[in-house]
Design the sequence.
């Protein structure tokens, strides 16, 4: 077989473009020893110019445009194989308001929440503290933990600086977990511990700002419940190939799904590669598996 030609898309117009470039560079580095022709494509906007004669497009873009279904639709229209979820699932997962509706309809536990549309009186149904977040951002961009009403309006204003609605949800006290999905199975559970108020942008991407324990120190039953719930959330949104599902384990032992990330970080500090390593897959094997899943799906579509 001829070596594959793989374009790795990174950058883009979102607030997460710098992190995306870190992810993209790590993917390029992981694929270079495989004999593939690896073509980095650093986007600065939404104009997607792809190299010729590609076999697969590897998406390493986070945030708006790259993760919300827009880029996926462009690639869908080209007929090229590309990694990750399709436009519809990407859009559902990226919009926290829509994703939560899907979770509720599927009977998947998620923190109680309200959508802020001007009437703040509805928030009285929630108890302090609450989490205020933009509905359409990733990497904890624009998120605040609010402990009293005095801090609520500034937090809402901060979240409204980004496109989309503002979600206010009940803060769950407990342990923060994340579960990677690869193919049709859940990877080992990771517990995240940080001295920050929550797993914010700095805790995610600055070395030493958080401790990730993989596999998480949980009993077998809780581990199985977390993996099952993560897989249900992934499937509920129609995701495919891979994702990373963030959860909270409350002080009373209840599990809640926070969100599903359809293009998890692939940086040196990222969680999906750490979970894959715990399952016996280094970064190169992980990236190859993602490409394999994209190729298999494309061949099935052509055969049909």
Sequence:
């Amino acid at each position: 077989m001829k070596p594959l030609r793989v374009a790795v898309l990174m950058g883009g117009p979102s607030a997460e473009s710098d992190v995306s470039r870190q992810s993209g560079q790590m993917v390029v580095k992981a694929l270079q020893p495989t004999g593939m022709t690896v073509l980095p494509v650093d986007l600065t906007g939404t104009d997607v110019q792809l190299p010729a004669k590609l076999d697969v497009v590897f998406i390493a873009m986070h945030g708006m445009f790259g993760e919300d279904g827009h880029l996926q639709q462009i690639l869908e229209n080209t007929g090229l194989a590309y990694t990750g979820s399709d436009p519809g699932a990407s859009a559902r997962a990226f919009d926290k308001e829509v994703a939560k509706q899907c979770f509720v309809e599927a009977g998947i536990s998620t923190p109680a929440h309200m959508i802020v549309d001007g009437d703040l009186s509805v928030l009285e149904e929630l108890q302090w503290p609450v989490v205020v977040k933009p509905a359409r951002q990733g990497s904890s961009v624009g998120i605040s933990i609010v402990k009293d009403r005095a801090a609520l309006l500034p937090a809402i204003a901060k979240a409204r600086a980004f496109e989309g609605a503002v979600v206010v949800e009940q803060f769950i006290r407990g342990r923060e977990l994340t579960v990677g999905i690869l193919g049709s199975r859940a990877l080992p559970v990771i517990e995240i511990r940080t001295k920050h108020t929550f797993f914010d942008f700095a805790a995610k991407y600055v070395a030493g700002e958080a401790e990730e324990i993989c596999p998480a120190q949980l009993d077998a039953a809780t581990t199985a419940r977390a993996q099952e719930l993560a897989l249900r959330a992934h499937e509920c949104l129609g995701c495919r190939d891979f994702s990373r599902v963030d959860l909270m384990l409350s002080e009373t032992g209840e599990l809640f799904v926070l969100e599903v990330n359809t293009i998890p970080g692939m940086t040196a500090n990222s969680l999906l590669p750490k979970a894959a390593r715990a399952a016996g897959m280094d970064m190169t094997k992980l990236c190859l598996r993602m490409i394999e899943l994209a190729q298999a799906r494309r061949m099935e579509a052509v055969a049909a």
User: Anything to note?
Assistant: The CA atoms of residues 12 and 47 lie 9 Å apart. The radius of gyration is 19 Å. Residues 283-303 form the longest helix (21 residues).
